[in-house]
Design a protein that fits this description.
Elements lengths: L1 E3 L4 H5 L5 E4 L3 H12 L4 E4 L25 H13 L3 E3 L6 E3 L7
Parallel strand pairs: 2-3, 3-4
Antiparallel strand pairs: 1-5
Length: about 100
């Protein structure tokens, strides 16, 4: 699979990933952690700062096990946890996806 992006194109083309996740919010980062734990070489891309919309919330009061936490802190926790497993590239807009061997994107 080849991703055509702006400045990061060469860095990504040189690697072989089993899974590329577009979006580094809570769902994308969770998926990345589980994917790597399952043995998949994983890359996460986001057009903005990793952490998603959670980072924009002034206070998150419905996260299981945590009575209340600032959204930026929770989002940073997501990112730091995921970085232990997967490569994350921020501020990277995917323009197109091309696959090899007839595999659909």
């Amino acid at each position: 699979m080849q991703l055509i992006m702006g400045e990061s194109e060469e860095e990504i083309d040189k690697r072989d990933y089993d899974l590329i996740i577009i979006g580094a919010g809570a769902a994308g980062l969770s998926a990345a952690i589980y994917a790597v734990r399952s043995g998949l070489q994983t890359l996460v891309l986001d057009a903005n700062k990793a952490g998603g919309l959670t980072a924009e919330a002034p206070l998150v009061e419905n996260w299981l096990g945590i009575p209340a936490i600032p959204g930026t802190e929770l989002a940073n926790n997501f990112v730091e946890h995921a970085k232990q497993y997967a490569k994350i590239i921020e501020f990277c807009r995917v323009k197109s996806i091309k696959t090899k061997r007839g595999i659909p994107p």
